[in-house]
Design a protein that fits this description.
With 528 residues, this protein is an alpha/beta fold. It folds into four domains: 173 residues, Dimethylsulfoxide Reductase, domain 2, CATH 3.40.228.10; 111 residues, Rossmann fold, CATH 3.40.50; 64 residues, Rossmann fold (3-Layer(aba) Sandwich), CATH 3.40.50; 113 residues, Beta Barrel (Barwin-like endoglucanases). The chain has a six-stranded mixed beta barrel with strand order 16-20-17-19-18-21. The chain is globular and about 65 Å long.
């Protein structure tokens, strides 16, 4: 997030796109509801009527995968009405040139309506609400990123914020809401195949040399593979071994059959987890790890806030801290790690990444949490980014055109499946599905289908139906619901007995970040 959670309730306008915030980030949603009660206008853009729509001034029900057309349509209105921030554009951006303007000019409200299915009047209203607000924030999650053109979606969001001057000031910004605990911290620490800690690029020689000196090791000169690329390489025999920590790709990755085939093709699979997941069941070696309540260290949350974690219970059985397992393995592989306490690791982080240099365990104990960048010991942390400018000097507008999703419905597969989470279950369910009260409330998979579509197919509520895609099929209970629009269906991906990712595709990755298109899959539905 460029801005902070506390700032949300003082937004004048909130634009939530591709995020079921009330179910997936309920604490953040409470801040949004407070903002609405203070007079802020809330715009929701989502193919489903998510619970937060109840509090919205405007709901834009776009077809899955058409976000670029919607965002460009809004920018067309802003440009045409002259309600952009000309001073901000002139002083702090580049690339707002004739070519960019010509591209936006193509996306009239009428053209955007034809692509997205959102009435042009709503597109115009949304654009004016967002652009005229003094403090407007954009909030999104994987409903934006998990597409064959997810990077284009994010660039379009950035364009919208830049055009209206909603970056570098309080209660505004571009705010991706992280989907799992400490995902922000993991990314900060270089858990991406092209980055070292602090978003420093592997391919830059001087960056690589600095880390080689810090770690006294020779480092690869080339970027690594993303998760989907690794699975493809395993199937092809180019990847022989894989080490998976705290992840259950059998349920959470696209195309379950492909994932199982890839993992089974490996010569050696190691899984480090707190439970025997579907992925761990395929492993040659399972390393028992500890949960959040059994370890010491730090987590970094979605607003870049670094916070202490303290052990409250002892780990059961043979379970060991992740850091201890990694140190033991590293030593046996010929690179000894001699940390005696996690605080020593944290101190090294400050050496690797200047943005964390001013944060220490003692400060975190005293202040409760600090937001990076925090470069010095007397720095208060940074609630919102880019107040004094952008790291590269001026921010750049990106020319983005709408490209249809790789998977498109047709006569054989006439429906568009989108997947996601529900309030009570979490991710692959390896933790929440072991909790009996949760299972009593939300222990059964389902497919949401629009009432008109259900009538056309003679499907009634509670009926078992077969859902098939080009990748696989499953049987699941129908939940007739007005939440999805006509032609769109929804399945939560938590349930192994009706795994939504048996249907999704591992092909058609985003060409930039190589993320799969989990949010748009063509399917057909039949009575069993």
């Amino acid at each position: 997030m460029t801005n902070s959670i506390a700032e949300i309730e003082n937004n004048d306008a909130l634009f939530v796109i591709g995020s079921n915030t009330k179910e997936n980030h309920p604490i953040v949603a409470l801040r949004m509801i407070k903002a609405v009660r203070k007079g802020a206008k809330l715009i929701i853009a989502d193919p489903r009527r998510v619970p937060l729509v109840r509090f919205a001034h405007l709901w834009l029900q776009q077809r899955p995968g058409t976000d670029v057309a919607l965002l460009n349509g809004m920018m067309h209105v802003i440009l045409n009405d002259g309600i952009l921030d000309s001073d901000f554009i002139a002083d702090r951006t580049e690339g707002f040139d004739e070519n960019f303007r010509k591209n936006i000019a193509e996306y009239t409200p009428e053209a955007a309506e034809k692509i997205t299915g959102v009435p042009k009047e709503k597109i115009i209203d949304a654009a004016r609400i967002y652009a005229r607000a003094e403090r407007a924030g954009i909030y999104y999650t994987m409903g934006i990123t998990q597409h064959s053109h997810g990077t284009d979606n994010v660039l379009s969001i950035a364009n919208l914020a830049l055009m209206t001057g909603n970056l570098g000031k309080e209660c505004s910004g571009v705010n991706p809401l992280r989907g799992q605990n400490n995902v922000q911290g993991a990314t900060d620490m270089g858990c991406s195949p092209n980055l070292y800690p602090g978003y420093q690029r592997v391919a830059v020689p001087q960056v690589r040399r600095r880390f080689e000196e810090l770690w006294d090791a020779k480092l690869p000169e080339h970027e690594g593979w993303t998760s989907p690329e690794m699975l493809d390489a395993a199937v092809d025999g180019r990847l022989k071994a894989l080490y998976i920590m705290g992840e259950n790709p059998v349920l959470s990755d696209p195309d379950m059959n492909h994932t199982k085939k890839a993992l089974s093709s490996l010569e050696f699979l190691v899984v480090q987890d707190i439970f025997m997941t579907e992925t761990a069941a395929l492993a040659h070696v399972v390393l028992p790890a500890t949960s959040f309540a059994e370890k010491v260290g730090t987590f970094t949350n979605t607003e870049r806030r670094v916070q202490r974690v303290r052990r409250v219970v002892d780990a059961p059985g043979l379970a060991m801290k992740d850091s201890h397992i990694i140190m033991e393995l590293s030593g046996r592989l010929g690179y000894p790690l001699s940390y005696h306490h996690t605080e020593e690791v944290f101190q090294e982080i400050g050496k690797a990444w200047p943005a964390m240099a001013g944060i220490s365990y003692s400060r975190l104990d005293e202040e409760g949490g600090l937001q990076w960048p925090c470069p010095t010991a007397d720095h208060p942390g940074t609630p919102f980014l880019f107040k004094n400018g952008f790291p590269r000097g001026k921010a750049t507008f990106s020319m983005v055109k709408y490209i249809p999703s790789i998977e498109q419905p047709d006569a054989e597969y006439p429906f568009t499946l989108t997947t996601g989470r529900m309030l009570f279950q979490y991710h692959g369910g390896s933790m929440t599905r072991r909790v009996a009260p949760i299972e009593q409330v939300a222990g059964e998979p389902y497919i949401e289908i629009n009432p008109q579509d259900a009538r056309d197919l003679a499907i009634t509520n509670g009926m078992q139906v077969k859902v098939a895609s080009r990748q696989g099929s499953l049987t699941v209970k129908a939940q007739v619901s007005p939440r999805p629009g006509r032609g769109v269906v929804f399945i939560p991906f938590h349930f192994r007995e009706a795994a939504a990712n048996a249907l999704t595709s591992s092909k058609g990755l985003d060409p930039i970040c190589r993320i799969p298109s989990l949010k748009v899959t063509a399917v057909r539905i039949e009575k069993t």
